[in-house]
Amino acid sequence: MTSQRPSRLPALRRPVMIAAFGGWNDAGDSASSAAEHLALTWDATQLWEIDSDDYYDFAATRPNITQADGVTRRIEWPSTSVSYARVPSAGRDVVFVLGPEPNLRWRTYCAQLVELADALDVELVVMMGALLADTPHTRDVPVSGSAETSAAATRFGLSPSKYEGPTGITGVLQDAFVQAGIPSVSLWAAVPHYIAHPPNPKATLALLRRLEPIIEIPIDTDLLADQAAQWQEAVDEMMSEDEDLAGYVRDLEEQEDAARDVDDAMTEVDGDTLAAEFEKYLRRRGDSSAD
């Protein structure tokens, strides 16, 4: 493994980079699973494995021991893998960045990925993540998106980011791309906090369906759709055996319905209506003053 990017790079067609990081940014391993699904589906080729010694604290992100035939033991070190896939059916290729969230030297780490993206002429970077939320598993998975510029937000139907607070490597890396002039957007799936353990194929599927129109490449999600349906059935069965948990889910559904009703009501109030109501208010104030 080396921290120096490859000297020979493939010639890619209008490449888009898709990045997902395990750990804090990836509830239920939903985002990592989405990126892995695409890399396997499109038969991605390994390009670069960033040296783990430079960016990981092995006491925090520990290596794994694996065995083959119960005899051979092998240590798998945490690392960031960069690969690429040529998608013949599409007009562009894809670069994947996948690995655990690094523990050390984030600015240097991000600078290397930005340099690689620039060298590959990446047109767009999509960061994928997942967070734990008070959302019921019985409803569609909420997927929020953000862009750092108004132009990008309009282009991809996203909202400019208004979040303020702690961030992970996804937020830092997205900012690094934006500062370098490379368009970057993020997609986040909301995972029910009461079933946080991976996998969560329903959240993975939701991310991929939101990703598809952004990267303009058809994504085969038939297998994931089947897995998501099976996951839903398994969780529903678990809920039927735990009345307290089932009641909590019903409360979440009611809260979501109430919030949606409020949003719908606000949407129906357009600018002309607000202006007319304000004029009525001013006239009433004027009549009261005259009395």
Automatic annotation (TrEMBL):
Pfam families xref list: PAC2
Record flagged with keyword Thylakoid: no
InterPro entries, alphabetized: Proteasome_assmbl_chaperone_2, PSMG2_sf, Rv2714-like
GO CC, alphabetical: proteasome complex
Keywords associated with the record: Proteasome
The keyword Nuclease is annotated on this UniProt entry: no
Name of this chain's protein: Proteasome assembly chaperone (PAC2) family protein
Species in which this protein is naturally found: Gordonia humi
